[in-house]
Amino acid sequence: MKPTQTYDVPTDPGADAATGLDAATGDDGSTAVDSGRLVGSDRVLAVLKELARYPQGVGLEELTRVIGSPKPTVHRALGALRRAGLADQDTRGRYVLGDEFLRMAFAHHEARPDHVRIQPVLEALAHRFGETAHYAVLDGHEVVYRAKVDPPAGAVKLTSTIGGRNPAHTTAVGKLLLARELTALEEVEAWVAEAAPERRTPRSLCTASDLHRDLAATRERGYGVDDQENETGVNCLALPVYLTSPTIPSGAVSVSALAYRTPLASLVGALDEIRALLTGPNS
After folding, report:
1. In what order do the strands lie in the sheet with 224-227?
2. What is the pLDDT of residues 188-210, one digit of tens each?
3. Region 172-193: what's the mean pLDDT?
4. Span 50-62, average pLDDT
5. CA-CA distance, 137 to 146, in Å (whole number)?
6. Residue 113 above 90 pLDDT?
7. Fewer CB near the last or first residue (10 Å), C or N of the chain?
8. Cα–Cα distance between 80 and 220 in angstroms, integer?
9. Which of 197, 205, 253, 251 is nearest to 228 (CA)?
């Protein structure tokens, strides 16, 4: 089942001539969000983001229900996106992301220097362990996967995707990168207060005190671990990557493994080998 995200947008007879949507215009001519409600270009972007959740396409009725806006408003937003090439309709009349959007996204991703430089390392890790290798960066309370290499054909693969997100506090890459930023208990408490940590599994660390202890241990040992904290049955080990600075990590590389097949202890035991791959001639 697709996750449902609703938007608090009231019916408004007024519409912006360019987008066909409600618009609240600031002194600089830009549209804005008024009292937490999506207006103008913000609503067009909300429709675009929702389309990305439906790779097999979505009908206007369902999209209208999920967005929580009147059908004519959503239809006009889709029209604006189609004119820009960012949305399209398949042979069944269902809406999908447009070819122009995919072209821009893939061109941008392929041009990223971090993706190009880290890909050989991820391929070597996936081949060595027969598990999934990721490169991820920290974005607030989440990690974003910039690159991924699945294990060889025939092996069970994880459902993570490039551009996908997970909570930082439940992932090895997230905790490794947070450990550098949140060094005092007070900093961890403030971070937790900003957004209550989600308990993804019974092992997730959701209190400031538990997370602070784990981050301290992570700093001391120099690598991060996820012991089935983000997904039951999956464990992970992460190491920092220095692509843009010799002292500040640009992100982290991880090996995410099915626990029954590659226990966390096996990953920790191979730590020196993983480090060698990261610092080798192809890294």
Report:
1. 165-167, 142-149, 132-139, 251-258, 234-241, 224-227
2. 999 999 999 999 999 999 999 99
3. 97
4. 90
5. 7
6. no
7. N
8. 52
9. 205
Q: What angle do CA 273, 278, 283 make, to 5 degrees?
A: 140
Q: What is the DSSP string of the chain?
A: -PPP--------S---TTTSS---B-TTS-B--BTTB--THHHHHHHHHHHTT-TT-B-HHHHHHHHTS-HHHHHHHHHHHHHTTSEEE-TTS-EEE-HHHHHHHHHHHHH-HHHHHHHHHHHHHHHHHSSEEEEEEEETTEEEEEEEEPPSTTS------TT-EEEGGGSHHHHHHHHHH--SHHHHHHHHHHSPPP--STT---SHHHHHHHHHHHHHHT-EEEESSSSTTEEEEEEEE-SS-SSS-SEEEEEEEETTTS-HHHHHHTHHHHHHHHTSTT-
Spell out the residues 6+ positions from residue 197 whose beta carbon is closer than 8 angstroms to its own. 141, 167, 169, 170, 204, 205, 206, 211
The model's pTM is 0.63
Q: What's the pLDDT tens digit per position in 206-225?
A: 999 999 999 999 999 999 99
Contact between 178 and 210 (Cβ < 8 Å): no
- When pLDDT is averaged across residues 27-33 and rounded to a whole number, the result is 35
Token duo for residue 244: 């843009």
pLDDT band (50, 70, 90) for residue 46: confident
